[in-house]
Amino acid sequence: MSSSSKSLPAKIFAFLSSFGLATAVLIMLLLLTLLGTLEQAEHGLVASQARYFESAFIDRIDIGACWRALALDGYWNIGNVSLPLFHLVPGGYTLMAVLFVNLLFGGILRIRKAPKTIGVIISHFAILFMIAAGAVTHHFAKEGNLNLREGETGDEFLSFHDRVIEIEKVQADPAAKRSVLVIDESMFHDLASGQGRTFTHESLPFDLMITGWKKSAEPRRDAGNSRSDSVDGYFIQEMSILDESGAAKPDEQLSSACYAIAKIKGGDEVQNGILWEFAAAPWTVTAGKEKFLVSLVHRTYKLPFAIRLDHTEEEKHPGTERARRFSSNVTKISGGNEEKRLVTMNEPVRSEGYAVFQSTFSSGEKEGTGVKSSGFMIVENPADHWPLISCIIVAEGLLLHFLMMLARFLKVNPWIFAFSLILAFNAAFALAMWKLL
Which H helix or E strand runs over 284? Predict the structure, then answer.
């Protein structure tokens, strides 16, 4: 049967499983890796990663930054030149999704099933598992920071990206248990100017309307009192999400803001306020004798254990002020049990699904306290060990394929030869790891 007589689904399957598509995707990924690495020199890791690897489509390429990263400005300075792509070129997220489909169709479903190809099929499956790990990490991993001074203990961390609106009743008794209502960002991030959404709860004596959400903004004084959206002489001024070089700012550096309107239940009283995540104090809503604090903050996550910072120190490169190594001696406290651990920049503490990395250090001199402190990056990743597992499976698959090909060359039973050697290799590897650990 000629290829022209194939049905449309068959043609689509053939295209998605083709070597040509795989080659094109890999070339595009190689190009994105090159561009992202070059732009990283000026825009930083977070911004470059967001533009090239985490995005579905790419908005532009900073030609000037890439040119300078290659040190070509010494021959010809082209200045700040950007190539707009108008979100027409696929980013790393889209390319990895296409590669996943291509490997599934071509490397698992379409490939000829035979003893010769079993190792290749296992390796393809492991690569699919690795891509899936990246997707799970991107969508479900939680990342945040925990700052501690020496002697302090903490069991909560603030998210880098997730914002919430918290409503807390002011308690007359300072020792009373806190009770906080939380509105997730997903419920108000689409409320631009002129759009509003009302939130209510039976425990609140007022309904809260959120409107005018801006991802990057700050309150400004309404000098002429001419704006209709000003609250107590201030309005929300939207700011650019790009820095001076034109690169997108990291999400954790943006300052979000919105308008809030509290409508007291059972009456006509209305109180207006501005919520800004960098505000010095929460907005206060008064309903009768009760007061409530309303604030826009980064989401707080609870750790299943507590961390006490016992001692932290910084090592610098000789003769410079550049940090060489941060390290912290901490005590992990869980259920009354204490465990001494060491956290460094490249050696995190892993426990109960969480990884604690050393990220920053402060001697306390700039703050005027003289007390050393450490900043820890906390990561909860359901797919934390999936890349390691997939690498092991890839190695096993390729080893199986090589040994079976070698067995046929030596004219011995490929199954007995391959599996016996693999078992021996695995036993030796397990013994070596046991000795090291």
Answer: strand 283-287
Nearest to 99 by CA among 21, 27, 168, 171: 21
> How far apart are the C-alpha atoms of 386 and 103, rounded to whole Å?
18
| C-beta of residue 356 within 8 angstroms of C-beta of residue 338 | no
Reference 101, options 190, 18, 202, 189; nearest CA is 18
Identity (one letter) of the amino acid at 171?
Q
For the whole model, what pTM was predicted? 0.77
| Confidence band for 40, pLDDT divided at 50, 70 and 90 | confident
Which pLDDT tens digit goes with each residue over 205-257? 999 999 999 989 999 999 888 888 899 999 999 998 777 666 667 777 789 99
DSSP state for residue 123 in the 8-state scheme: H
CA 112 to chain centre: 39
Neighbours of 416 (CB within 10 A): 10
The residues with which 62 forms a beta bridge, in sequence order, are: 82
Structure tokens at 67: 């040119």
For 340, counting Cβ atoms within 10 Å of its Cβ (0-12 exposed, 13-18 middle, 19+ buried), the class is: exposed
> Is pLDDT above 70 for 10?
yes
Say if residues 190 and 325 touch (Cβ distance below 8 Å).
Answer: no
pLDDT, position 50? 83
Q: Is the pLDDT of residue 1 over 50?
A: no
Phi, psi of 38 (to 5 degrees): -70, -45
Angle of CA points 178, 180, 182, to nearest 5° = 160
pLDDT(362) > 90? no
Rg of the chain taking only CA atoms, in angstroms: 28
Helix (H/G/I), strand (E/B), else coil: 16 = helix
Rounded-to-10 torsion of CA 157, 159, 160, 163: -140
* Composition of the chain by helix, strand, coil, percent to 5: 35, 35, 30
The SS3 assignment for 374 reads strand
d(CA 205, CA 170): 13
DSSP state of 424: H
Domain ranges of the chain: 3-110, 157-299, 386-436
Is 258 exposed, middle or buried (CB count within 10 Å of its CB: 0-12, 13-18, 19+)? buried
Which residues, at least 6 apart from 228, have a Cβ–Cβ distance to it below 8 Å? none
Q: Return the structure tokens found at 433.
A: 């790891």
Q: Is 147 exposed, middle or buried (0-12, 13-18, 19+ CB in 10 A)?
A: middle
Q: What percent of the chain is modeled with pLDDT above 70? A: 96
